[in-house]
Design a protein that fits this description.
This protein has one helix and nine strands, in the order αβββββββββ. By secondary structure, it is mainly β. It has a single domain, classed as Lipocalin, CATH 2.40.128. It is globular and about 40 Å long.
Amino acid sequence: MRLIRLFLFVFCVATVAAGCKKDLQGTKAAANSPLFAKWELRIQRGGLQPDVNFAAGNGNIVQFNADSTYAFYVNDAITKQGTFHIASQTYAQGPAKLDLIYYDNSTNGEVIWLQDGMLTLGDSAADGPSYIYAKK
């Protein structure tokens, strides 16, 4: 019963997210994509922990560029950089279609969406972490 509830919750969250997010697939070709900017961490959630809020100016930043490069910063110092691509994924459980971002040559993507000027990376629906950023 618990598994069914979890499935229904994940399905509902994915359906709502798919209806609210901006389409990010093809960002490499769209040089004016709203994704291409510096984003500063505001909220970390998931992992069975309470939300952690971050004040403006905290130095935890992700930057996406039109040439499909990215950089993660912690305390204003680069901790990871490379290339990325975004692809849409349709799930068999329903009509939900999510955009996934793949860093470097990884075959494991993570959910990405833009909504109301905020960028979310990851998915906390199944107790995984997600990170919510505000445009810097």
